Amino acid sequence: MSGYSDLLGRVADEGYIVVGLDHTETPNYPKQGQDFNNILEWARQGNLAAEFQTQSITAVPDVANRAAVMGQSAGNHVVGQALVDGCSIAKAMVLLDPVDGFDPFGQIHTQDLITPGQKLSFNIPVLHLDNYLDPEPGVAGVSCSPWNLSGPRWFDAMPGPIWNVNATKYGHVDCLNDAMAIAGGAVCAGSPALTSNKKYREMLASSITTFLGAVLDGRTDDLALLEDASKFGVEVVVRQDLKGMAHSDVKAGCTNTGIMV
Questions:
Q1: What CATH number did the domain enclosing 128 receive?
Q2: Per-residue pLDDT for the chain (261 aa), expressed as one digit of tens each?
Q3: Residue 258 region, left (φ>0) first, then alpha (ψ -120 to 50), else beta?
Q4: Does residue 178 fall inside a structural domain?
Q5: By residue range, what is the domain housing residue 182?
Q6: CB atoms < 10 A from the CB of 259, how many?
Q7: pTM for this entry
Q8: In a domain, 145, yes or no
Q9: Is residue 261 part of a domain?
Q10: Are the C-beta atoms of 162 and 241 separated by less than 8 Å?
Q11: Structurally, how many domains does the chain consist of?
C-alpha cells in the first residue's frame, strides 16, 4: 500500500480513517471478494476497533455508520464482488480506475463481475474516478484498463446514483506516488515520464473527500461540486446519473437484492 501513501494520506488529512488491504495472489475474484466481505463483517463485529486499541491507535472507527469501500484497478473487482456477496457495513463506494474481467483481452468470462446490459445487485452511492489514458496500451502493447472492461462498463452497471470524473491528461497508474507511477508507466499508459502527478492526486483526494462528506455527513449540496468541471484543478470531463434523485435524496447506505437486473 506504500505506493498510494500520498493519495491516501491526503484523504486521511481530512479526518478520515483509511484502512488499506493488499494481496499478491493469483486473481480469484469470487474467493477474494468473499474474503473482503469477511473482513467487513470482521470489522462490524468490533474487531477493527479492538485492533486499533491493541496498536495504540486512538482513532475510533465508526464502522457501523460511516464505512466506505474503495479499490483501484482490479481491486474494484474484488470490492464489487464483496458487495454482490452482501453489503455488510458499506455505505458509499469509490471506484478508482475500475477494471473488470480476468484477463486483459476480455476473453475469459468465468470471473466477470459485470454482465453488460445488466445492473449489479447492490445499490449504493458511487464516485467513479477514471482518466482518458486508462484504455491506452502500455509499452508492452497491452492495456492495463481495456475500454471494454473499464469506463462505461462500470458506470452503466450501477443501479444507484453515480458521479464520474474523468481526468483527460492522466493514466492508469498516475494515482500512485511519483516514483511508482513512473515505474508503472513501463507497463501501463500514463502521463509523460519524469513528471509529477501531485496535482492529479490532489484532485482525486479532494473529489473523494467531497463525495464522502456529502454522502456520509449529509452535505448533499456539495454533490454539485462533482458535476462542475471547473472545480477540479486539472482538466476533467464529468457526467452523472442520479437515477432521478435530487441531491437531497442521496443517503449513505447499501441494499442488495441478490439479483442482477
A1: 3.40.50.1820
A2: 678 999 999 999 999 999 988 777 788 999 999 999 999 999 999 999 999 999 999 999 999 999 999 999 999 999 999 999 999 999 999 999 999 998 877 777 889 999 999 999 999 999 999 999 888 877 667 788 888 999 999 999 999 999 999 999 998 889 999 877 666 555 676 666 556 799 999 999 999 999 999 999 999 999 999 999 999 999 999 999 999 999 999 999 999 987 665
A3: left
A4: yes
A5: 2-256
A6: 9
A7: 0.94
A8: yes
A9: no
A10: yes
A11: 1
